[in-house]
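Notes taken during the Thursday session

The instructor put the following on the board and asked us to keep it in front of us for the whole hour. The protein is Cochlin. We were told not to look anything up and to reason only from what is written here. First, the residues (526 in total):
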Amino acid sequence: SLASTAITCFTRGLDLRKGTEDVLCPANCPLWQFYVFGDGVYASLSSVCGAAIHSGVITNTGGAVRVQTLPGQENYPAVNANGIQSQVLSRWASSFSVTAGSKSTALEAVGRSVSTARPSTGKRPKKTLDKKAGNKDCKADIAFLIDGSYNIGQRRFNLQKNFVGKVAVMLGIGTEGPHVGVVQASEHPKIEFYLKNFTATKEVLFAIKELGFRGGNSNTGKALKYTAQKFFSLENGARKGIPKIIVVFLDGWPSDDLEEAGIVAREFGVNVFIVSVAKPTTEELGMVQDIGFVDKAVCRNNGFFSYQMPTWFGTTKYVKPLVQKLCSHEQMLCSKTCYNSVNIGFLIDGSSSIGESNFRLVLEFVSNVAKAFEISDIGSKVAAVQFTYDQRTEFGFTDFVTKDKVLSAIRGIQYMSGGTATGDAITFTTRNVFGPVKDGPNKNFLIVLTDGQSYDDVRGPAAAAQKAGITVFSVGVAWAPLDDLKDMASEPRESHTFFTREFTGLEQMVPDIIRGICKDFLDSKQ
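Then, after some discussion, the predicted structure tokens were revealed:
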């Protein structure tokens, strides 16, 4: 029989090259990270293993799957199945279906050494690029923000245009590949052309060639902010679910400040790259407003989003590495996700039946959930309230804006000990903790942790919290009555209610809670 190819959690239908292919999915893929479009018939943009779990062919323990390529179609539906929420897609050029692979092929794949069982991305037959469709493996909507200031001058401006043209060619622009547009930064920004204007490389190259040099100060910050806010609208051709990227070309240094523009871009879910050419010399550094301008503007200050070229001459060798970055969509950390766009409030039972050592296990659970999210001033936020008969806000959503500070605040929570009035505590938290953020951009979640019967009504306060736009998860331990837990939880109640006999069982729930939050977040974005 045909040997299966071992693939990764993220291999998509369009990454496979045969009409029918036997593949082997790994175990323990993070369900909430799967992108799946459709039901039964999946758009080729979908993760193969995600589709296989969604359709029930395998579980999260992995296994052999046979993938059949199918023609494209209109209207892939969104269906929730086996812990995966598939998403709507109005049309795509190719599809696939999944069926169970044969066991013998699976054993062969497992028996092979790890080194050969790599995803089938390395040695492929030469790709026959469908010219119009473009490079389907590169998912990106890109704005090239070119430098049109007096800093660069007419001659280097033309070299810059040549470089952008080479990048455009290598990207593989097409209807299903990357789309690009150009904005020129000078005194005032000017959008030269939008994503929707051209979907063929030839047209883009012609448009780049025609660009005229504007001159003026290099107000890159102003141009970056303008591009982040105005360029990526749906009516200008931005596509839902495709990473938005701005590549800023900077000759020398900016005349204005980039920090605010960087924040705005991140708020808008845009990934900013900076390509700096001819960095300021030591003498020139005195004229730079902010020496750290690159770090403040890029999506993440992790080295991935900044790129340096010594001059505009001989830049051909810099084209490919830049294109590889722009096409690695799993690295685009600034696209809005459940990780960076939620507020999570923890309501922690401090009653005397828990005891000091179990209370530590509860805090460990809270930390482990919080740890999964990107906590920052413009990202996700965490708050905690402890309750007995009374309530104590341990910290609010705006008190700590870094993950380290939040985690150390959780560690520092002191056990109160007392009675259990869960209803009052929910009312208190809805008003005092969620009240101040209710008009913010993030989606609100409340996780109620309790180990026993509440002395007051929980149903009314929980309904009021949900009405205020808060999704409630209830987590019960030991003597917490299931009826109470269900009464507090958001719909569908089954997936928002958790219970464990022992406090040590909390640890196993962490991935399910995170997945639940991400699933609700995605559903709210549909």
